Automatic annotation (TrEMBL), chain B:
PROSITE patterns: ABC_TRANSPORTER_1, ABC_TRANSPORTER_2. This is Methionine ABC transporter ATP-binding protein. One of its GO terms (biological process) is peptide transport. Belongs to the ABC transporter superfamily.
Length: 402, 325
């Protein structure tokens, strides 16, 4: 087996293989006689693999095509070209019963928990609806119990089964959406911005839930988001999209610690870090202008109009998504696919430990020392037992840095 | 002091009862200063801002107490016409969603120029020139050609620049920006935030930045006020709050954000949900979710304790929170 772009280097057989996926929406003119005058190239050749039990994060700005990819994966959109192979079988060519069987195994969690749940259905009906279509999964008499189990799994009270979506908060609604996604015991869950509509304090709860469910049910995730910090947290591998293409893909260390594509570098440097001290350690790459229209993408490299490295070659030649020649021979940590003619490594995220973790300052330490001295018998509160929640230590930054 | 909010109370009368959205908020902004008001949805941060601007929907909203002193005058005691003169002229607001805050059937030039026609009595022709000037100032490329374009013809970042231009038009001394970059992409977010900060410095304005994003705030704010259930639970200079939060809620928020430079095991999550404003828990509103809550927290609402100069925390255990690492 020779390596294809975006393929998994280690681990088992990929459960999902996406090859050269294209989605063009035609632009037409005229009312009666429609003439196609162009196309919005929403997705323009995307390839990646997803291994069983793996989480692939896809990041990019709005309009980059990440949600269209998600919708094609769950067959809500028919691709213009390309293949989506689920266990070797191209699902874009399936129909009827075969398609129905595959769809059961690839489920989706939507972004907005306010609009993706029918307000006139009870929670029980919403979560149980997949069983109407795939009745083989749960026989009729068994459904109510199954739905209650699912509610329990996602951390909601099983007694809420007869309530309506408006009786729940945003975070709870997203849990309902997740329970619905789990109902058919799928193998793959495509989550399109599952936490971006939630409050900060609730986001963490839902991310932890997704983590737990993955371990519990051996799920594979395609996790789509614009928030790079959350993607890093949850993903094993990360693909960065720009204007309908993946421009860089690799493991999370490769992308975050050794990015080689200028767009990834700019994206990483623009993420606001909750630490005013970080400004001194960070170089910010300010991109000029906006993302070009996908109806009229630039020739050659799609990023060249905003890139500070762009040269004449970028205008002529589309850079391929492959390991750049410079990184090929060496056993470099930056050895991963990057679609740039002039790829070079640049550290944008300061190495771990350089940034201070909240609540861990010299001042804080001194004070706690003093207090411990005074009181004598009392142990200075530790990191997790003072403010922690039983779910885990608040931060492991200091222990690893030290 | 440019603006002082003193013990402001706002409630909403709904079918289900009285929702207490703002319960005694105090904050102040000086000229050239940036105050970030941080909070989750329902914390009362936007309602406070609407009360300052005088754009609160009344009813169902009702300002049930407090003072809003702007340039030594209490806004709440002013007549409607007086307030209208201040609005736009001396204080302006930038909203989160530029597309729905701009009029879709008027060109941006007309909307920008309207400020000068209404407030300064300019002719439409002069106002249009002013509009071009403003668009240049917020660095919209080819301003002269684009002044006649409609909002939908601009990208999200450009629309937000137009909102900023409109707010800046009459050079007010106070700007309230309600989640100005939340709807934008990260790379554009940085551009817009930089522009806002730069114009603020240039015009020496007071800026109230309302946001839920701890990251955005870190780069631009001088002071931070953290709101929870209609109260300020902690306020401090920006550097100190990130270094050592003195309220368990702030601390929980800071710890629950995944970090770009770390691949954590499990995220710290604040347990539970923000309170229902119809039934705010007695005592400290955060106590049901707080890992440090004791008997006292369920009894009486904690006052703001002075932690250090310019630092306050509404937690009985602020010392322990500071000390605990």
């Amino acid at each position: 087996m020779h390596a294809e772009p975006g393929s998994v280097r280690v681990g088992g057989e990929p459960i999902l293989q996406v090859r050269d996926l294209v989605k063009h929406y035609p632009l037409t003119q005229g009312i009666l006689i429609k003439k196609q005058i162009g196309a919005v190239k929403a997705v323009d050749g995307v390839s990646f693999d997803l291994a069983a039990g793996e989480t692939l994060g896809i990041v990019g700005e709005s309009g980059c095509g990440k949600s269209t990819v998600a919708r094609m994966l769950v067959h809500l959109e028919q691709p213009t070209a390309g293949a989506i192979r689920y266990k070797g079988e191209d699902i874009t060519k399936l129909s009827g019963r075969a398609l129905k069987a595959v769809r059961r195994n690839i489920q989706m969690v939507f972004q907005d928990p306010y609009t993706s749940l029918n307000p006139r259905m009870t929670v029980g009906d919403i979560i149980g609806e997949p069983y109407e279509i795939h009745s083989e999964v749960a026989p009729k008499g068994d459904r109510r119990r199954k739905v209650q189990d699912l509610l329990d799994v996602v951390g909601l009270n099983p007694e809420y089964i007869n309530r309506y979506p408006h009786q729940f908060s945003g975070g709870q609604r997203q849990r309902i959406g997740i329970a619905r996604g789990l109902a058919l015991n799928p193998e793959i869950i495509v989550a399109d911005e599952p936490v971006s509509a939630l409050d900060v304090s609730v986001q963490a709860q839902v991310v932890n839930l997704l983590d737990r469910l993955q371990a519990e049910f051996g799920l594979s995730y395609v996790f789509i988001a614009h928030d790079l910090s959350i993607v890093r947290h949850i993903s094993d591998r990360v693909g960065v999209m720009y204007l309908g293409r993946i421009v860089e893909i690799g493991t999370d260390e490769q992308i975050y610690d050794h990015p080689t594509h200028p767009y990834t570098q700019a994206l990483l440097s623009a993420v606001p870090v909750p630490d005013p001290m970080a400004r001194e350690h960070r170089e910010r790459i300010l991109l000029h202008g906006d993302v070009p229209s996908p109806a009229n993408p630039p020739s050659g490299c799609p990023f060249r109009t905003r890139c500070w490295k762009a040269q004449e070659r970028c205008e002529r030649e589309v850079p391929l998504l492959a390991v750049p020649a410079v990184f090929r021979p060496a056993d470099s940590p930056a050895r991963h696919d990057s679609a740039c003619h002039f790829a070079e490594e640049k550290q944008v995220v300061p190495p771990e430990g350089l940034l201070e973790t909240p609540g861990e300052t010299v001042v804080g330490k001194a004070v706690s020392q003093e207090k411990a001295d005074e009181s004598g018998q009392e142990d200075p509160p530790g990191p997790s037992d003072a403010v922690g929640h039983e779910d885990g230590p608040p931060s492991s930054g200091s222990s690893r840095a030290g | 002091m440019l603006l002082e909010v003193r013990d402001l109370h706002v409630e909403f009368h709904t079918r289900d009862g009285v929702a207490k959205a703002v319960n005694g908020v105090n904050y102040s902004v000086a000229e050239g200063e940036t105050l970030a008001v941080l909070g989750e949805s329902g914390s009362g941060k936007s309602v406070t801002a609407q009360a300052i601007m005088g754009i609160l929907d009344m009813p169902p909203g009702k300002i049930s107490g407090g003072e809003i002193v702007f340039k030594d005058r209490d806004l709440l005691k002013m007549k409607k016409e007086e307030r209208r003169k201040i609005r736009g002229q001396e204080m302006a607001m930038i909203f989160q969603d530029a597309l729905s805050s701009l009029n879709p059937v008027l060109s941006v030039g007309e909307q920008l120029g309207e400020m000068f026609v209404v407030h300064r009595g300019m002719s439409h022709k002069d106002a249009r020139l002013k509009a071009v000037e403003l668009m240049d100032r917020v660095r919209i490329p080819a301003a002269r050609e684009r002044v006649g374009n409609y909002p939908h013809q601009f990208s999200g970042g450009m629309r937000q620049r137009i909102m900023i231009a409109m707010a800046m038009a009459l050079e007010p001394s106070l700007i309230i920006a309600d989640e100005p970059t939340t709807a934008l992409d990260v790379t554009v977010q940085a551009q817009v935030m930089d522009l806002l900060a730069e114009l603020q410095r240039e015009l020496n304005m007071g800026l109230i930045l309302i946001t839920h994003d701890l990251g955005v705030v870190a780069d631009v704010a001088d002071y931070i006020a953290v709101m929870y259930a209609g109260r300020i639970v902690e306020s401090a200079p920006v550097h100190e709050i990130y270094k050592a939060p003195a309220h368990p809620y702030t601390k929980g928020l800071l710890q629950s954000i995944p970090r770009l430079d770390q691949k954590g095991q499990e995220l710290y999550a604040i347990k539970g949900l923000p309170p229902n404003l119809l039934h705010i828990p007695p005592g400290c509103a955060f106590n049901p979710r707080c890992p440090m809550a004791q008997e006292i927290c369920r009894g009486e609402v904690p006052p703001l304790f002075e932690v250090a100069r310019h630092r306050e925390s509404a937690c009985y255990f602020w010392k322990e929170t500071l000390d605990a690492r």
